[in-house]
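$ fold --in a.seq
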Amino acid sequence: MGYFSRVRGLLQFICILLLVSNCHGLLQRRKARRSFKTSVIKSESVRSDLLSQCTLYWRNATLNHFSFVKYKGVDKAFKQRYYVCSNYWKAPTSTSGPGPIFFYAGNEADVLLYLNNTGLMWENAPSQGAMLVFAEHRYYGQSRPFAPWPKSGLKPYQLDYLSTEQAMFDYVELVDEIKKEFRAEQAAVIAFGGSYGGMLAAWMRMKYPHVIDGAIAASAPIWNFFGETPTYDTGSFAQGVTYDASMEAGSSRNCVYNVRAFWSTLSRLAQTPEGCALINQNLNLCPDSTVSSPSDAEAVRDWIADAWDNMAMGNFPYASGYILNGDGQLPPFPIHEACRSMATDVPSDMDLLQGMAGAIGVYYNHSHLTPCFDYKAGVNDETDAVDMLWDFQWCSELFMPSSTDGVNDMFWPAPFDAAAAAADCRASWQVSPRPLHAQREWGGRRIEAASNIVFTNGLLDPWHGGGGLTVPVGA
């Protein structure tokens, strides 16, 4: 069998298995900035049976692949982490070529999170004789340029090398190094990725087809940008979250209605001191994190909506710590669990407040050890660290608009304000978004020249609205 026939056969085999899979993403909407931390997964959350099959490697990664000039005070390289798991790999012999390389294009978290949760790679490695490689995305996990990082965080110029293009070229060099080290120059390389990692996998196949022979892009919202034709529906993410909370998706009958009613109740109560007291008591807010004004209530609103967004992204049918970056665990179908607290038929103000406290507790009190809620804090340090770095990427090159309307979703009317978002990005990072950058760089929906890319989307995943749900004309 020829090389390209082997690649096509391998992708077809994996596609059959994908028909019964449902992959959700980690990619997050833009959030408020919090203190700067590092995004390292807790070691006790990693499956030892998987990790024991892998070898940890470090490489000297080039900081700036696209400049030949060394700037004063800027190092040329940084230490990048990756894992090679070769137990099942079919090494080349005198009579047969090597087995394929399954390459996980790491996204915005510690690489061990993906080693621990990318079951499709592990499940297919034995039958395909595949080597597994899990690469860590620059700046995330322990692959940190300019390390050690100060508590105050990196300066904007130090974050200038945090981009998809730089990360992808890291992976191009890594594939080349691995092939040489293992004498696997003829091995087919299949890139895997979920959410942002799925975007990277697909884009690598498009941009570096001589390096990546095929890609499995799960929950990859590559069309979640300005400039698409037809236009991307900015409300699709919120509609996806709402679907997860609906009866059609298995949630309680009144959940969507009651969640939608909660926002106006919160806003109305925040107008008076008595109403603020009801909010603080029934939402179980901590004494140093109380609501005393309408602006406080807006901050609480956004913090609560963040819980629903993340529970929808982690709405797996089994218990999982994936969406918590390995620090804790959500129950099976966390949205269903949250909706049980929002099931009252004719709720009073107190019912809505207490019900919402129970609902967001599925996420913010996943440990069942949180005595009260601090709406000024995230769910854990690991997730805060990811959010911080992702915020820079969102502000610079991955300007992904989202909106809510309170009619087709269970939130409140909030059209996307690109000008306000850009102003906030300048204030936060001293960068201005380039709204059309992704569409111009990667081609938007005009990817008919690409090949050997499998896009998979679970309809319970709210990112599917920006994913590859249809085959481009001419593909």
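$ fold --in b.seq
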Amino acid sequence: MKNIQIFTIIFIINLCMSLKTIIAQISLKVDYVTIEGLEYFKSHNFSSNNPNPALKSINSTASIALKNDSPYSVMNTTVTPPNGNKREYISYAPYLWPSCKGIKNVTDPETQCPYKPRDGLYNPDVRNLSDPVDSRNMVRDVLSLSIFYQLHGDENFAEKAVQLLDTWFVNEETSMLPEVIYGQIKRGPGEWKGREEGILDTRLYVYIPVAVRILEKSRAWNDNIDKGIRNWISDFSNWLMNSNLGKQAFKRSNNHATFYVAQLATYLEFSGRIDEARNLIRKFSETTFQNMILKSGEQPMESKRTKPYHYQCFNLEALTYIALLSQKINGTNLWEIRTKDGATIQNAVDYLIPLKNQDAGQEGEAILLPALYKARDYYGDRSGKYANTISKFLKTTNGASEWWTIYSPKSLRDGNVKNSNGKSYNYDNYDSYSENSATSLFGTSLYAMLSFGLGVFFVFLY
């Protein structure tokens, strides 16, 4: 009996860890989602009997979100923002650390020691704040619930997504104010102030407009939610354009400016301010973008960081998003714009293909995949360079975390592309994700099941 009790405890722990790992695998990237792309996927690749790993992950995440009764809200924070209003979003700068050398009798480093940068070294205590976590999880759940509703038509999932949007953006008792004045604040002696880097925290909000367009067809949608969301996005757009932090973010020479433009252009387009969105992208292409890519394809403002491969892929994430959005609104063709060194986005993608990701961590070269797909889609692939690289990188992923494969706007329409050797790769067949991986969505649950079997074996053994 004692052995059975011990085994039960071990099994429950393993099962909980497996479920946690499934969700932890999901790291949303900024990508351009369209209802048309989702409908294409539904008509050409949708299989209820054998869904691909990414769709399994979306379905699983949506199902868990449906049953989650713990609301995401800025009011959950245990750290009150400096102005005393919990509706203000607050986060700490992740790469700033207290420097207490030479300071005597330190009892509270947060207020006594100056904070200094250690680029690439993540300060773990930033996770003590709930706003960044709740914000990311809210978007993840809204997106998965909306996609599930679009593909399956289950009104329960739409209703849950609408509830999440109401809590975060509309309800005056729980919603976030449409500004980020305390984003990535610098702690230390004196007044804690937000920085323009904090605008990066809301980059995933680019998924909210497409979620709205999906959910407004549901029975759960109503005039109050519609007006509240649209007012929030409009107000946030105005804050991004007119605040000092927003203006500083646009003037940055790296990914902070790129993601700022990606966000603001999205919100402006959603609000019907198409000319303003076009002008923003045009101005970006004529200014900041001009210094972003060298003739070789290297992105100097990202490659000088301590994680050069990661940050160059990260900036491409936003650049390719802007290029796709600009195509939709008949704006500047960012795919064809050349920097002052004569380089395009294609050069930046090509530069990274032969490189090894030497950054610390477990990302690998597969983080380049979304940009590879988009470069192939726009520039073509007569030599098979992208096909070869995509095939190689796909084998290193578990598939479950690659949500973007579900709604990549063009990749899903060009399933079969031949490489230089004449071999055909079908990118619509995402079973290839699981060729070398036992972790395609429920791989970790398989681990729990194996633990169960081993537990039973040892129970009977003893």
